[in-house]
Amino acid sequence: MAQVLLFGGRSFAATEIAGVDEAGRGCLAGPVVAGACILPAEYDLPGLDDSKKLTAAKREALYPRIREQAVAWGLGVAWPWEIDEINILQATFRAMSRAVWALKAEPRFLRIDGDKLIPGHALQRDIPQECVVQGDGKVPAISAASVLAKTFRDRLMVRLARRYPGYGLAKHMGYGTEAHVAAIRELGPCRLHRLTFRKVRPEEKPQVQGSLF
């Protein structure tokens, strides 16, 4: 495990680096949730990996251990109405920024999962960053952030499913399964749905041009 990261001619200790990742970006319903995590130089998190590669039981087992052992951790949420207002990419940046703001120890460096950095207007802090493609499977701090975000979001969706019954939210967590899309067609969207997403908003019927004769 690397103890020091060199970037841009500067060095950063492991305890100064926060990993950042999101969950729920591709859903039709529910918020996008981001996690941020600073891990200590030494930790005991067996099986830590990209949350998508872990079972729900494994994520649930890791969730409290990450929070207990982390130097700092934070979660950020951007709700469906925010997604509809500013689009999913900008809402993801907003959730990531909120997760970073929630850290009780300010990081000196951020490692973001994916191929995009958090823009300055969202982060509102001058913190060096790098993006890491498939970082949730390569960088332990990002893996930890991934598990935090996914587990928190799944728990939240189970609770929200009781408030908005009929859509099966506790089963598919808001993703666009056939059953979910069918429920939207039958019941119409609820407050948790992202109204700007194609499978949620009503499809426009093509206008049939009448004959000129």
TrEMBL record:
It catalyses: Endonucleolytic cleavage to 5'-phosphomonoester. Manganese or magnesium. Binds 1 divalent metal ion per monomer in the absence of substrate. May bind a second metal ion after substrate binding. Its main location: cytoplasm. SUPFAM superfamilies: Ribonuclease H-like. The keyword Manganese applies. Its EC number is 3.1.26.4. One of its GO terms (biological process) is mismatch repair. It is an enzyme of class 3 (hydrolase). Residues 15-209 form the RNase H type-2 domain. Its cofactor is Mn(2+); Mg(2+). One of its GO terms (cellular component) is cytoplasm. Pfam families: RNase_HII. It is found in: Cytoplasm. Keywords: Cytoplasm, Endonuclease, Hydrolase, Manganese, Metal-binding, Nuclease. One of its GO terms (molecular function) is RNA-DNA hybrid ribonuclease activity. The keyword Transcription does not apply. A divalent metal cation binds at residues 21-22, 113. PANTHER family: RIBONUCLEASE H2 SUBUNIT A, RIBONUCLEASE HII. Endonuclease that specifically degrades the RNA of RNA-DNA hybrids. NCBIfam families: PRK00015.1-3. Belongs to the RNase HII family. This is Ribonuclease HII. The lineage of its organism: Bacteria, Pseudomonadati, Thermodesulfobacteriota, Desulfovibrionia, Desulfovibrionales.
